[in-house]
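Audit log entry. Action: structure prediction of a protein-small molecule complex. Ligand: zinc ion. The ligand was supplied as SMILES and no pocket hint was given, so placement is left entirely to the predictor. Protonation state taken as written. Sequence taken verbatim from the request; no trimming, no tag removal. Recorded inputs:
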Amino acid sequence: MPLFEYKCSECDHKFEELVANSESKVTCPKCASEKVSKLLSVFAASGTSSSGSSLPSAQSSCGSGFS
Ligand SMILES: [Zn+2]
């Protein structure tokens, strides 16, 4: 399941959310605003083993520096 990173444009809070489908509404856990913008999609950043799902062309450059 893809893990997406969002940023709230109301309170500037960054959070991560597991979304089952891209239509699901994401709200900020802090201020409950729906004005969130999706950042990069991260695939469960820690851990190397992905069980089963092989995406053939997932070689997008994830080159935005986040530390
Ligand atoms: Zn917020």
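Audit: result stored. The chain has a mean pLDDT of 76. The first strand starts at residue 3 and ends at 8.
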